[in-house]
Design brief:
Number of helices: 3
Low-confidence stretches: none
Strand content: 35-45%
Structural class: mainly beta
Helix content: 10-25%
Oligomer: single chain
Strand order of the largest sheet: 8-1-2-11-10-9
Largest sheet: 6 strands, mixed
Order of helices and strands: EEEEEHEEEEHEEH
Distance between the termini: 41 Å
Radius of gyration: 15 Å
Shape: globular
Length: 162
């Protein structure tokens, strides 16, 4: 019997992405971001998550995707009714907590390992390092992000950042 995994899924541009459920702390609405001087472009700033300061990573920029989307406001009050603001997928590793800014959130899917394929060779740049592989689903391809590498490239290894 094939082993299966659960993934928290989300959308970014035209991509359907997932993270292992055990690495996702929570999904929350957009939070006001405080800019950090000299931070890499993909690190939009910091959010206050119940008195914990968490870096907010613009996953779209980090994966070098289309930038022709509305700018993410920084250091402003957020209009609660705005539907064009990204959502925060807060991920936790053994050492760090970061927030990934995504377009929309999907569902939690349980998928058999039989559907797993290695990363597509067409991936370039940071995506090539961050996409661990893909699951072939009935109507789409689910790309799985490597949580540890996302955190590593964002926080721990400044020479590899955007």
């Amino acid at each position: 019997m094939a082993k299966s995994h659960q993934f928290c899924t989300f959308f970014l541009d035209h991509f359907f992405l997932g993270l292992e459920v055990e690495n996702v702390q929570e999904v929350i609405r957009y939070q006001s971001i405080t800019r950090v001087p000299l931070a890499p472009p993909a690190v939009r700033g910091l959010i206050n998550l119940r008195s914990q300061i968490v870096p907010a990573v613009d996953l779209r920029q980090f994966l070098e995707l289309d930038q022709d989307v509305p700018n993410i406001p920084v250091e402003t009050q957020v209009d609660e009714d705005s539907e064009h603001l990204p959502l925060n997928v807060v991920v936790r590793t053994a050492d760090e907590v970061i927030s990934l800014l995504v377009d929309d959130v999907g569902e939690v899917l349980e998928i058999s390992d039989n559907c797993f394929e290695k990363s597509p060779e067409t991936l370039r740049g940071n995506a090539q390092q961050l996409i661990r592989g893909a699951y072939k689903l009935a109507n789409q391809l689910l790309l799985i992000l490597d949580t540890e590498k996302v955190v590593e490239l964002t926080i721990l290894k400044p020479t590899l950042r955007n």
